[in-house]
Amino acid sequence: MHPILRSGNLGLYLLAWSPIVYALALLLTGSARLSWPASLAMAVPLCVIYAFVCLSAWYPSRALPLGSGRLARVLVAHVMSASVAAAIWVLTAVAVFAVLRRSEAIRAAVPGIYGLGIVVYLLAVAVNYVLLAIDASRQAEAHAVEARLLAGRSELRALKAQINPHFLFNSLHSISALTSIDAAKAREMCVLLSGFLRGTLGLGDKALIPLHEELAMARSYLAIERVRLGSRLQVEEDIESHCEDWPVPPLILQPLVENAIVHGIANLIEPGLIRISAKPITGGGLSIVIENSLDADAPPSKRPGGFGLAMARKRLSAHYDGAANLFTAARNDTYRAEIRLPENGAANL
Amino acid sequence: MKALIVDDEELARKFLRELLDGHPEIEIIAECANGFEAVKAAAQSKPDLLFLDIQMPKLDGFEVLELIGLGPAVIFVTAYDTYAMRAFDVHAVDYLLKPFSKERFEEALRAVRDRKGDRAPAPAELAATARGSAHLDRIVVKDGSRVHIIPVSKLDYAQAQDDYVQLASGGKNYLKQQTIARLEAALDPGRFVRIHRSYIVNLERVVKLEPYTKDSRIAVLADGTQLPVSRSGYQRLLGLLGGGAEE
Fold it and tell me: Does the distance separating the beta carbons of A267 and B33 come in below 8 Å?
């Protein structure tokens, strides 16, 4: 249905026709030599009828969008329908005058009415295109708002998914065991765990945090896992000092560090090593590498992959518009994950 | 009652030991930090009760159970609730979810006492069936006190030997107490074919099929091994190879 009929603006639309009523009346007094009251009495109903005829311009306008690139075809189509509409209008006028037995009076006005009809119809087409454009931009805006909402929601879901519930259960079990074995250590573990959880909650609403904050989160996670795994977990760090303030998405390292534990160290009988390093890339950008020992005999089902990495990739591509990368590779008994961030990563946000 | 504690986390082992302190009737014969130690300890000292973690390095809890091959009462102790169904399929007495309370632990011990005297079915067979629909990705074999892990991708073929199967992998043979029908059921039918009453072959190893008698053929493997192919085995092979690809 036409938006003018739909939105209940019909009165306003008809009011907008008053200049056309005036133009038609002027034409009738001039060519048909009618008195002012008589030509107005004729012009008003004729314009009301034509106003509805012009509403039909909505359908060809919608079917032939301006952006389609075939301007000539669109123009020809509209001029043709304009001539048909104007012809209908002229015939209506002739019929009305014939009923009133004034046929000879209208004859001189026919070319004028026909011309006015075409101009008014094309005007209606133009108005329709404006309405369509407003409609489209409103829809685009609604889409953008929806996309932003969705992005925010998936971000939140991603952050929640970073914290594996089994990590919590295992940590709580360690605390439960420590209460009688080593109460001081149990308290320390509670503090570590709370610190880590508080960090993950607080970071959720930030788009980027400095690398040293992100590393602090990874360290507290590893400290908790060390209570559980004991000497089986060895950690080494090699962070170039001027990388410490580089902005990174919060918790982007978490799935990598967790994979290093769950799919790496936890599958080893002998002590295993997790090595975290960060250095600038020659030519711009930052490279963060997490390497861990791996049980080379573990079946593929115990190898990392899956949800955490996919989420990290999604977040990187959302934050950096495809300019950041996450590479993973397993070689013999070492698994390596590398995040490469672009130089002007912060500029996109 | 002799008990074995199997958990890769030291704290978890200490916790169980502490809880068992109040039970002089239960003697802890060993604490094991991984599946290999558990299989060895169980072979040496036949425990009556097993506290078994599931996610461990090298061998998981179900594989340990499969290898132990006798009927101790089993209490699984894990942070994962996802294995509960499988645990009861292998007739575990109880399934303790970490963290658990002392009361919950006592309840599990009561369940063990109530079950005493019942003859539990052999865990090896049960563990093999409890796998459900997922195909095996490795086979565990006990050889004295040693444990071999054979990834199925390295299994060349298997041959029936009464109640055992002989597994050929990279020129070596391993003997496992399992029927060939059970092994066949656990393997991926898209990769392994029962070509004969007594043989299962890894499809990737087959290089050619040669006629032998009117009704039978011989499959030649990449390393030159020749295996008999029965008529129905040949039909199965053809079905898998998309019909008429060979010969």
Answer: no
